[in-house]
UniProtKB/TrEMBL annotation:
Pfam families: FAD_binding_3. GO terms for molecular function: monooxygenase activity. InterPro entries: FAD-bd, FAD/NAD-bd_sf, FAD_aromatic-hydroxylase. Residues 5-316 form the FAD-binding domain. It comes from the Bacteria. Gene3D superfamilies: D-Amino Acid Oxidase, subunit A, domain 2, FAD/NAD(P)-binding domain. Keywords: Monooxygenase, Oxidoreductase. SUPFAM superfamilies: FAD/NAD(P)-binding domain. This is FAD-binding monooxygenase.
């Protein structure tokens, strides 16, 4: 019998992970990516709980651990850079704001691509422009290449996925009233291997994180009710950031100076909450389906778990429609829990007044105290939902490797 075929749109995390598993199940997999090549830029991501178990089953745990950023943990600093409280990196069971498996998004994407490149067809520099689902197959039209027909199509793109609108045109992003700018800056002798957080009045936050490439990954975030800034030209976004963060203190001017010489990524922070993740033979996975936002710390784990479960269901079901339905049934509770942010977030960690900043710093000191650690454990358990709140099924068709530890 001829192998079934699938088109996956998106070559970041969820897409190559899904390709990995469906190839194992004997499917012919094509991944299309609108960028001309693999995007190796990006900030820190972490893999926790069930996501890490998926990595084990893929046989990639050692490679990912070897590519870690080396971040020792997180520390909250004042305007003079003095530490108010520190939280060491977590252990293998997922505690801590910094996970044990902390890696740059670009490095992780590269490892996933390398593990699938010999067996999966990757088409870079193209994108889907139309999808015709006949009930028996899906014909995809492309911006540059000829139309092709597949047994199923999966959209594994980001929060603002363009292809998703071809499947579910009414899907809308749930905004969280927050903007973030991400950039890479030069490392100096004064930098260390801790993730440093600084809170400033006006709903502003600045962070610096070490990487394993000899640079520093910086973010600027600000709470705002103004909409549409993500659609402005980069030069206009840079002007807004300089005006907004002027006089914020600490290392802010250093980060702002980098806006003039280095590329940066600026976007509105949001979640994707939609009642269905598929239509006919076309489905969604990862951020395109259920982005929890960077504030959750769960995006990568949800992408990995979703890719594994969806592949298992596609490989096990007689048709994609049943597989997509079963996938939603299994994943919805896990996603719903991940999307429940800390009460008051993001405003609670972006106070507008000086009194609010002072109160937050006091709370941070208490959270980092020995008594709080004994009573409540590491702060990551409070901020992020448990990453292992799903029992992963076993799918013989996926031919797992690695040494699965299993989940309770």
């Amino acid at each position: 019998m001829a192998s079934r075929s699938v088109l996956v749109s998106g070559a970041s995390i969820a897409g190559p992970a899904l390709a990995h598993w469906l190839h194992r199940a004997g499917w012919a997999v094509t991944v299309v990516e609108r960028f001309d090549g693999l995007r190796e830029a990006g900030q820190n991501i972490d893999v926790r709980g069930a996501g890490r178990e998926v990595v084990r089953r893929m046989g990639l745990e050692e490679q990912i651990l070897a590519a870690r950023t080396g971040e020792l943990g997180s520390t909250i600093v004042d305007g003079q850079g003095r530490s108010l409280a520190s939280f060491a990196a977590g252990t293998s069971d997922g505690d801590g704001l910094t996970a044990e498996m902390e890696i740059l998004r670009g490095d992780f994407a590269r490892l996933l691509h390398e593990s699938t490149a010999r067996d999966v067809e990757y088409v870079f520099g193209d994108q889907i422009t139309a999808l015709d689902d006949t009930g028996d197959a899906v014909t995809a039209s492309f911006l540059n290449g000829p139309a092709r027909t597949f047994d199923a199509v999966v959209v594994a793109e980001g929060l603002t996925s363009r292809t998703r609108s071809l499947v579910l045109p009414d899907a809308e992003v749930t905004g969280l009233g927050l903007y973030m700018a991400y950039l890479t800056i030069e490392r100096t002798a004064a930098d260390d291997d801790w993730w440093r957080w600084y809170f400033a009045p006006g709903g502003r936050q600045v962070t610096l994180r070490p990487d394993n490439h000899g640079t520093i990954r910086a973010t600027l975030s600000v709470a705002s009710s103004v909409g549409g800034l993500e659609d402005l030209e980069p030069a206009d976004q840079a002007r807004i950031l300089r005006r907004t963060f002027r006089g914020a203190g600490w290392e802010t001017e250093r980060v702002l100076a980098a806006l003039d010489r280095d590329a940066f990524y600026f976007d509105a922070v949001g979640q994707m909450r939609i009642p269905r993740w598929s239509r006919g033979r076309v489905g969604l996975v990862g951020d395109a389906a259920y982005c929890p936002s960077p504030l959750s710390g769960m995006g990568t784990s949800l992408s990995l778990v979703g890719a594994y479960v969806l592949a298992g269901e596609l490989a096990s079901a007689p048709d994609p429609l049943g597989a997509f339905a079963r996938f939603e049934t299994l994943m919805r509770p896990y996603v719903d829990r991940a999307q429940k942010l800390l009460p008051g977030a993001p405003a609670i960690v972006h106070p507008r007044s000086r009194a609010g900043v002072a109160a937050l710093r006091t709370a941070v000191r208490l959270a980092g105290s020995p008594l709080a650690r004994r009573l409540g454990g590491v702060a990551g358990r409070v901020i992020a939902p448990p990453a292992d709140a799903i029992e992963l099924p076993r799918y013989p068709a996926l031919r797992e490797t690695g040494h699965p530890a299993g989940l309770a």
